[in-house]
Automatic annotation (TrEMBL):
Protein name: Uncharacterized conserved protein
Molecular function GO terms recorded: FMN binding
InterPro entries in UniProt: Pyridox_Oxase_Alr4036_FMN-bd, Split_barrel_FMN-bd
Gene3D superfamilies attached to this UniProt entry: Electron Transport, Fmn-binding Protein, Chain A (2.30.110.10)
Occurrences of domain Pyridoxamine 5'-phosphate oxidase Alr4036 family FMN-binding (ranges): 8-96
Length: 183
């Protein structure tokens, strides 16, 4: 991550993440992309960290739909919901591939690495053939392993507090100035 100033919305996000504790679901984000028919496609992915002060990392398979969508349209939106803090973050951004990705591969557990050696994502399972098993960490990173960076340019936070919800927006072009808006 760069040494640039961390946007104030990251403090709000950090606070929400702390309230979630160590729940695995606290790292699940919903990623929406646009396919070549201009239709939105939504799926849950795992938040893998920050590349810069305002860009999110996710890992994917080069054979996945989200990677093919990137070839057509780089627009993406991420929704990150935190139940305990009743906070919903929406991030608009541009998605691109991170070419230097070996350090991310090396950070994965063996069981996580094994998923990149499975058959094509989205294809029907053929129960007549042996299914992939765990792999050794001695295997080299497959070409299919892709790291995606989502460069955020807009943040929308909805706090589901009572009696009246609160909503805030930040935009990169406005130097991440916090603006309260009607929910």
């Amino acid at each position: 991550m760069t040494e640039n100033k961390i946007p104030i919305w990251r403090q709000e996000l950090k606070s929400a993440r702390i309230k979630e504790g160590k729940l695995p679901s606290s790292r699940w984000i919903q990623l929406c992309t646009v396919n070549n028919n201009n239709e939105p496609r939504l799926r849950t992915v795992v938040f893998r960290g920050w590349k810069t002060e305002s860009s999110i990392l996710v890992f994917t398979d080069q054979l996945s739909e989200k990677f093919s969508h990137l070839q057509f349209n780089s627009n993406a939106e991420v929704l990150w919901l935190f139940f305990r803090s009743k906070s919903q973050f929406r991030f608009k951004g541009k998605m691109k591939e991170v070419k230097e990705n070996i350090k991310y591969w090396d950070s994965l557990s063996d069981s996580a690495k094994s998923t990149w050696f499975w058959p094509h994502p989205g294809k029907e399972i053929d129960h007549k053939i042996q299914q992939p098993q765990m792999i050794s960490n001695n295997l080299n990173k497959p070409e299919r392993f892709v790291v995606l960076e989502i460069e955020i340019y807009s943040v929308d936070l909805l706090k589901l507090v009572k009696p009246i919800h609160k909503r805030y927006v930040w935009n990169k072009e406005d130097n991440w100035k916090k603006i309260e808006i009607y929910p």
